[in-house]
Amino acid sequence: MEIELKLALQPRHAARIRHHPLLSNSKPQQHALLSIYFDTPKFDLMQRGIALRVRRIGRQWIQTLKAESQSVGALTSRPEWEAVVAQGDQPDFSALPQAALDLLSGIKHKRVAPVFTTEFRRTTWQIGDGAAQAEVALDRGKITAAGKSREICEVEIELKSGKPEFLFDIAEQLLHAAPLHVEPRSKAERGYILSGAITPSPVKSVRPIIVQDQPAGEAWNAIVQAALVQLTANVPGFLENAHDIEYLHQLRVALRRLRTATQLAKSLGQQVPAWEQPLRELMHALNPARDWDVFQYEIMPGITPVLAVPPENAARSDEALAPLQNAAAQARQQAQALLLQPAFTQLMLDIGRSLLLASADSHRRDTGTWAATILEQRWQKLRKRCHGFAALNPAERHLVRIAAKKMRYSVEAFAVLYGKRATPFIAALAALQDELGAENDRFMAMQLLNELPKKTAAVSFQLGQLSGALAFAAAQHDQLSSASWKKLAGSTLFWQQ
Question: Exposure of 472 by Cβ count < 10 A (0-12 exposed, 13-18 middle, 19+ buried)?
Fold first, then answer.
């Protein structure tokens, strides 16, 4: 079983790793590595989560088969089998043990052929503290597939012996010297993307693996782990394709799920994790980018027809939209920069490290009992906030939205325990949250408009039109959320059954 922690960096910062004091007592070893990755024409191995490569190291060819990995933040573990083979142009399936061959059952070996290559220079250092040993590897090179190439520059820290916490100790020390950032994708995954076998897409919520009778502390760990997987999986997409607004949306959903988990910790008699504060600050810092995304791509299409701008005024309309588009682009760039900062990487390391520690559940409750208690508490708070719903003012509805959001993330975290019984309630809750969210989005859009510079009379006039259209849209939707609350209030409370 391979256990490693992988982080990326810009090539210009590679020297900071090479000259880090942590590595000064270890003589570096350098190797030029050429790896050929194999699959069938229909990418059967990839679909099973298998990576098969043959790597040239000096005069030897080493064949490696890796099974589907389990990644939590930057930490990855996966089954792996290696063997020396005679040549690298074709795999040698006879060198694989039966456990590896079982993973390839049904795949015709003759159809396996080269798909892409990686070529890089690896510099390694062996370090240890007496209780643990690890290898630090700095890789610089490229991935080539289908006539295209992408740069590789990353640090891999592989555990040789001892506890995985040692990997985090090393990563944190390296992070102090170089701006390492999160890269959850393996070289193989990036190669498949480059070859066209994978079309990247935003990753939606990952359901935690929990059961009724397990200790609640273990379930809490699983909830954090699922949210962390979703968070890190959406980072590369947002950095590389920020105009697909779903990446940032799903990234923030994962952040909210993590925040929900920090609140659940208190119900287990645990302290709120130390990473709760930087998590909250990150969430706040990403809000402007998401607010502008919603304004541009969700609200504007709905209110533009109301404006009915005559053709002769189209140029003036474009003039008014320019500051809006500029503000949105600037917010997006600032959000991307945040995810490349050491502070974000440190946050991911802190959360990942916390998942390695034993969960302290002083009450030793089972997960089923804990879940029912949490859901009942959340429901009672939501009901209290919704009393006299139709007469609630905007500030009170904002509190309802927050309570509904907390309820939804708690419900979805525990839904796997209840199966289909939870589905109608989740659907009604989601409808209410969507309506309240739309109200909040329109409110935020008004704020954003008010903050835009009004450099000319024409711009002021056009922005005023947008504000009027928003107010009109808000009036049309005022009664919808009341109906959504009535439907939710009449739903079966599945955790009481």
Answer: exposed
Instruction: Output the pTM of the full model.
Output: 0.87
How far apart are alpha carbons 109 and 179 in whole angstroms?
A: 43
Place of tokens 């590789």: 152
434 CB burial (10 A radius; 0-12, 13-18, 19+) = middle
pLDDT in tens, 27-83: 999 999 999 999 999 999 999 989 999 999 888 899 999 987 655 555 656 688 999
**Residue 332, Cβ neighbours under 10 Å: how many?**
21
| Burial class of 41 by CB neighbour count within 10 A (0 to 12, 13 to 18, 19+) | exposed
- Angle CA(438)–CA(425)–CA(293) in degrees, nearest 5? 25
Nearest Cα to Cα of residue 102 among 93, 111, 110? 93
Q: Take residue 18 and report the two structure tokens written for it.
A: 């090479």
Q: Which of 4, 358, 31, 339 lies closest to 170, judged by CA?
A: 4
Q: Report pLDDT digits (tens) over 308-319.
A: 444 445 445 566
What residues pair up with 29 in beta bridges, in sequence order? 124
